[in-house]
Design goal:
mainly alpha; Arc Repressor Mutant, subunit A; about 0% strand; disordered C terminus
């Protein structure tokens, strides 16, 4: 787990205390490294951006209004720097693992993770989750990081991602579903999901830091968010479209007989969409 930073240390750094600033810089480095590496999946870029972030923090911490918002402030800024980099460079991140990446991933998975899996299976799962994370949209990867590894609640995530709490829940639901599909593509069912996340957490920390514990509670999103996510899929939209089409194109007299069948069709399509979201 990330080392706690006392509000008093942040407050003293805000006042310009050099010893406090140096200590704060030392304490935030590992957690910033993990957050940025999980966003970029690029070690060299991560090292550069972490250094930029430390300099930014030292120069700008006096502008932080509330010490309780310290990590949210840093994460918002780091996310902006990552997005700015890719926007400026107009780069598309390579999806396939390079030989160097695979060696690094296998080394961390083999030496720093003990889950009862065979070494070969653990390496295959580490390849699958790392590649799967690469394939996710940046906003999906970000919300998985903030929820699963930074243990932030949905309100805090909404502030960082500039969206409502409900929106952050819906995004997390979609991100979780998307990653499950990526793992399923590589032959790993939903029973491997928690292990895969934990493995990804270990791989993407600095060597001297420990990863956050992934729990079933951190994966919960609530019924309302699940419902919204389901109906925003193509199948969910199709069910709503069918109902609307029936309402506007069929004579009023016939609606009495057809509406029950339309409702059944919509319910059927809804459960299909939910099965797709929760399935492998």
């Amino acid at each position: 787990m990330a080392q706690n930073i006392s509000p008093s240390l942040i407050h003293e750094a805000k006042l310009g205390n050099k010893i406090s600033i140096d200590r704060l810089s030392e304490l935030v480095r590992d957690r910033l490294y993990a957050y940025i590496f999980r966003l970029t999946l690029d070690q060299n870029l991560t090292a550069d951006l972490v250094q930029e972030m430390i300099i930014f923090m030292i120069q700008s911490i006096n502008q932080l209004e509330h010490v309780d918002n310290f990590w949210g402030w840093l994460f918002r800024t780091a996310l902006g720097k990552v997005q700015h980099h890719y926007r400026d460079q107009k780069r598309r991140k390579a999806i396939e693992l390079s030989d160097a990446e695979r060696r690094y991933i296998h080394h961390r998975a083999t030496t720093d993770f003990n889950d009862g899996l065979s070494e070969m299976l653990r390496q295959e799962l580490s390849d699958a989750v790392f590649t799967g994370m690469k394939r996710l949209k940046m906003k999906y990867r970000n919300i998985l990081i903030l929820r699963c590894f930074e243990n932030l609640d949905y309100r805090e995530i909404g502030v960082i991602m500039n969206c409502s709490e409900l929106r952050s829940r819906v995004l997390f639901f979609r991100a979780k579903t998307s990653l499950r599909r990526q793992l399923a593509f590589h032959g790993f069912g939903k029973n491997y999901f928690l292990i895969a996340l934990a493995l990804f957490g270990v791989i993407t920390t600095s060597a001297k830091a420990s990863s956050a514990t992934i729990t079933a509670y951190s994966l919960e999103v609530g019924f309302t968010a699940s419902l919204l996510a389901a109906f925003s899929t193509k199948i969910g939209i199709a069910s709503a479209a069918i109902a609307a089409a029936l309402a506007f194109t069929i004579p009023y007299e016939a609606l009495v007989y057809i509406i029950p069948f339309a409702c059944l069709a919509a319910v059927f399509l809804f459960f299909i969409s939910m099965a797709n979201l929760y399935g492998n």
